[in-house]
Amino acid sequence: MGDHAKQYAPVEVTLPWGTLTGDPRTVTLYLTTPDCLPLSRSKFNPGVWKPAIGATGIPDDRRNGMHVLRHTYASVLLDAGESIKALSTYLGHSDPGFTLRTYTHLLPTSEDRTRRAIDTAFGEDQAAKDGPEAVDGLETA
């Protein structure tokens, strides 16, 4: 368990799932209000995010909005190779196609994947760490 979870124990909350009248589902929340209620965007944004942005002097605009955290999360996972299907689940999207359409510009290109695969197969990653003298390139052929 991480330090944050040790200091701020998660809270189990039962809520309707999917829609306001959906079947109740119990989930563990790490971010709650001070009185251990589910933290909603409508409370977090004006009560936590906006004051934090204001205190830093960062412009309070769309580029620094709370929704950027969601896109950052998605882009980090995609860069690490997470699948669209898994990301769709993590983001709460009902359709992986929507996730793909929204985040396709963040996916590595086929050329990037191909280059990395070949570099790895030929040990270029290790050669770069060992220095140029370790590379056995065309000049030795």
From TrEMBL:
Positions of the UniProt region annotated as Disordered: 122-141
Assigned keywords, A-Z: DNA recombination
Gene3D superfamilies, sorted: Intergrase catalytic core
Domain of life: Bacteria
Domain Tyr recombinase: 1-119
UniProt-listed InterPro entries: DNA_brk_join_enz (IPR011010), Integrase-like_cat_sf (IPR013762), Integrase_catalytic (IPR002104)
Pfam family, one: Phage_integrase
Name under which the protein is recorded: Integrase
